Every structure is written in C-alpha cells, then in structure tokens.
Amino acid sequence: MDLVRVQLGNTDAFSSIRGVYGGVGLLIGIQLIYLAVKNKKQGLILVALFGGLYALSRTITIYAEGGLGAFGRQWLAIEAMLSVAALLLLFLRNRLERML
User: Fold this and answer.
1) Cβ neighbourhood burial of 31 (10 Å; 0-12, 13-18, 19+)
2) pLDDT tens per residue, range 16-73
3) How far is it, in rounded angstroms, from Cα 51 to Cα 2?
4) 66: alpha, beta or left, given left = phi > 0 and alpha = psi -120 to 50?
5) Distance CA 46, CA 38 (A)
6) CA atoms of 14 and 6, how far apart (whole Å)
7) For residue 2, what is the DSSP state?
8) Exposed e or buried b for every residue in 68-92, given b needs 16+ CB within 10 A?
9) CB-CB neighbours of 2 under 10 Å
10) 8, 50, 59, 61 - which has most CB atoms within 10 Å?
C-alpha cells in the first residue's frame, strides 16, 4: 500500500487488504492453475475478463478522478495486454479448432 501512498491505521484495514489481495489473489491463481489443466478455453476467458475488467476500472478512474500515477499506468498496461493476449489466444484456438 506504500506504493500508492495509502496508510492503514488499524488491524481491520490490514486484514481487509490481505483478504482482497492475498486471499482473493490466491483463489484466482488456484482457479487459473485448475483451468489450465482441465479447461484451457475457460481459463483464457477468465484471464481475458479479469485483465479487461481491471483495465476498464482503471480507465473509468482516469475519466472520473483524473490521471493515474506511474503505478496505476504500469498496471493498466499490464492488465490491458494480459486481456488482449488472452483474447488473441482464444481467437487462434477457435480458428484452429475450426480447421481440424
């Protein structure tokens, strides 16, 4: 939280941040590993939605509150490219399936 200059003032705040970034992050990571083994197409859809919706949320912030700092701009680029890469892989996968 120091990277975005947010000070957490109590244990409930620390707990909430750990829950969101730790617990939910682990859940998404485990889910992606599972889907990579069991259903790659659904895994790519999840990655495309996850990155795309994060990027959309950051873009809305730009229009609603103003420009992002270096941290936010870097993550906007990462999330957007992640979504685009997943969509491209989905497109190529679907095209390959049609050819076979």
Assistant:
1) middle
2) 888 888 888 899 999 999 999 999 999 999 999 999 999 999 999 999 999 999 999 9
3) 23
4) left
5) 13
6) 11
7) G
8) beeeeeeebeebbebbeebbebbee
9) 7
10) 50
